[in-house]
Amino acid sequence: MSIPVAETLPAPVLQEVPAAHPFPTRLVAVGLVLVTLVVFGRMVVNRHGFVMFDDHAYVFENDNVASGLTIVGLGHAFTDVVAANWHPLTIISHMVDVQIFGVDNVWGHHFVTLLIHCANTVLLFLILRRMTKADWPSALVAALFAWHPLHVESVAWLSERKDVLSTFFWLLTMWAYVSYVAAPSWRRYLVVMVWLSLGLLSKPMVVTLPFALMLLDFWPLGRISFQQGTWGEVRRRAWQLFAEKIPMLVVVAIFCVVTLWAQNAQKAVVSMDLVSADVRVINVLMSYNQYVAKTLKPYPLAVPYVLSARKMNWTLASLSAIGLVVVTGLILLASRKRPYLIVGWLWYLGTLVPVVGFVQVGYQSMADRYSYIPLIGLFMMVAYYLPELAAWGELTRRRIVATSLVILAVLAVLSFRQVGLWQDTITLFTHSQWHTQRNHVAHVGLGTGFAEQKRYEEALEQFEIAIEIAPRNAGAHFNRGHALSLLGRPEEAGNEFLLAKALGHAEHTCLFNLGVTYMDRGEYEVAIELAKEAVKIRPIKSSSKLLAICEEKRGNDAEAAKWYEQAIVVYPHDFLLRSRLIFIYAASPDDQARNGKLAKYLADDLVQWFVSLGQSPNPVVLSAQAAAYAECGEFQRAESIAKAALAISEAMAAEGRVDALPLVRKIERQIECYRKKEPYRKIPGDVEATSESNDGQPGLGVK
Fold first, then answer.
1. What is the pLDDT of residue 184?
2. How many Å apart are CA 164 and CA 116, to the nearest integer?
3. How far apart are CA 158 and CA 418, in angstroms?
4. By three-state DSSP, how is residue 119 classified?
5. Backbone angles phi, psi at 652, to 5 degrees
6. Above 50 in pLDDT, residue 691?
7. How far is CA 357 from CA 52, 277, 512, in A?
């Protein structure tokens, strides 16, 4: 393996410098971790749940992730695009979470993310200290990184596991790079490439890492200096360092192509027709200044900052551009004696490039999570300048220490508060609506939270507000259609799904939900065709359930049984699906569909499952069990079970449960048959509603 290797780093830079008072490295590292656990620990202690803001796509509605760590899932992690990104290592990390904690113990998933954030904090501290030999400034950078409110979104939002995980590998790449610089060899270079590749497999934002390493070559590694040697020697040295990064840049280029393909495949990249070039340039210039402003004043924060709500004009953009040029010029002038200033500033500017808005993905003008790596540059500028101020005198040094501690305490308190906003969907988006204007994404998010709690009228109101603000918001139309469907307005719902499809929402989900509306209207053949068409595009978790119900309502019990069997594999704890299958085996008019012995076995097993949970069997389950016993000729036992089911269903009807009345009538017909020593044969009206589809749940997707 031939790699252009630059000269070994000058010895004085890497060698440890003896200190008069040994620095308490371990104590500082432990302190950083403990405070970080306190600041973010409430999301674990208070058991924050999923947020209907991409969490469904990453975890609980992702079949491969929800199944835990499997061979099939690992294959899909490397072949599937999730939330318009290809990041297989992030998906695998979610699989590991599910394998350890299950899907529903969300606190465990949050705990893993928090541990990675703690690891990133300690790694950043140790790497900076190793490179700069500056103890307390390195600790200050790590503390700012760990406790700044702008980083809460990356840690508290489960879908942003990719942020903390990719940064973990980013920092390991830096550590390996410093080791390579100290003693260049192809083996050490290979370690750098491995960590870089793992970072790219976690999140494509790592594409800027080779350029960040070039900045480190200038400071603090001192591999190139503009004050030493002739201009020709400096150019030669710069070319050597660039050539050294070429293998990294090749890998980065490959991942850039894959990322653009993934985002275009899911239509996540906004076209120039929707966001013009001049709007993008204005947004980029303003965003660079806004991130600095929010770093200095990190309250209030919101999710997201909608592009359409930002005041776009060339006057503001020009002022922003002038500000950037002036600041950059001043930093360049100061960099002769203070190289960390230009390195930190260019780190900030450069690492934001992939997400600052040149390539517009989603509705946001900017996002807190995008600052997770870039702010390290700003923190370095401040932290490494403070020792110069402290040199003015003991009083100044004490004031700096006191001020730094106060600022860190304020940031920690603000972050602690910000973490609390991520406890659920409604809390998060209610806060966002209060602190932003015309935020149609926040209205859709709040609507999904209401729908999650079955508050469909309130959800519908939020979706309609979002559509009024942004008529072309495909997600708002899709979610409005879902709410209308659940409110029993299938025709209106169908129109919304068609409109969402036309506006670019995921075609397979639109077709599937359109199929549900046709099923609700009794047009089962059309519903089946739409469901099958959706599955051809992409397999949908609830497709087998929809097809089973439609086939049964058409009277095609044999085909329905096949689909119910598949649905039960996907939803093993859905007792209504199991009851429907048992009822077909026990009471279908189709002789070929019936299997009394199997029905009895499955019914007894289902009842035993209820008993093991300490619950009384549902009357639907008992009705199916009674039919199974009757099919096997045990009519007395069947009548006894049916009477128990009748008593429960009559009590439910007395409580005002409208859905219990058809069940009462069905069980009464069953009892009449059993008294006559006849098995029961179901009629079309016997098909009860099954549990709601996860694929029908409104979900908000962002990048």
1. 95
2. 6
3. 15
4. helix
5. -65, -40
6. no
7. 24, 10, 33
Residue with tokens 């993008």: 280
Phi-psi group of 454: left, alpha or beta (phi > 0 → left; psi -120 to 50 → alpha; rest → beta): left
Percentage of residues in the chain with pLDDT exceeding 70? Answer: 90
Distance CA(267)–CA(362), nearest Å, equals 9
Q: What are the backbone angles phi and psi of residue 269, rounded to the nearest 5°?
A: -75, 125
C-alpha pair distances (Å), 355 with each of 1, 364, 401, 619, 669: 34, 10, 34, 54, 64
Contact (CB, 8 A) for 440 and 306: yes
Burial 275-308 (b: 16+ CB within 10 A, else e): beeebbbbbbbbbbbbbbebbeebeebbbbbbbb
Cα 128 to its chain centre, rounded Å, is 30
State residue 152's pLDDT score: 98
Q: Is the pLDDT of residue 131 over 60?
A: yes
pLDDT-derived band at 263, boundaries 50, 70, 90: low
- Cβ neighbors of 463 (< 8 A, separation 6 or more) are 443, 444, 447, 476, 477, 479, 480, 483
Are 327 and 335 in contact by the 8 Å Cβ rule? The answer is no
User: Nearest CA to 212 among 179, 237, 249, 184?
Assistant: 249
The SS3 assignment for 91 reads helix
pTM of the model: 0.83
Binning pLDDT at 50, 70 and 90, where does residue 275 land? low
Whether the predicted pLDDT of 146 surpasses 90: yes
Scored b (16 or more CB within 10 A) or e, 356-367 reads: bbeebbbbbbbb
Nearest to 217 by CA among 125, 329, 355, 342: 342
Read off the tokens for 162.
Answer: 């990719």
pLDDT attached to residue 256: 87
Selected residue with higher pLDDT from 230 and 415? 415
- Which has the closest alpha carbon to 699: 490, 436, 506? 506
Distance CA 573, CA 612 (A): 13
Residues 6+ apart with CB under 8 A from 92: 69, 74, 77
Rounding to the nearest 10 degrees, give the CA dihedral for residues 35, 41, 42, 46.
-150
For residue 575, count other CB atoms closer than 10 A to its CB. Answer: 20
Sign of the CA dihedral with 95 first, then 99, 100, and 103 last: positive
* CB distance 459 to 450 below 8 Å: yes
* Torsion 157-163-164-165 (CA) sign: positive
Distance CA 152, CA 39 (A): 10
DSSP for residue 58: I
Phi and psi based region of residue 594 (left: phi greater than 0; alpha: psi -120 to 50; beta: remaining): beta
- Check residue 291 and give its pLDDT: 95
Rounded to the nearest integer, the mean pLDDT of the chain is 88
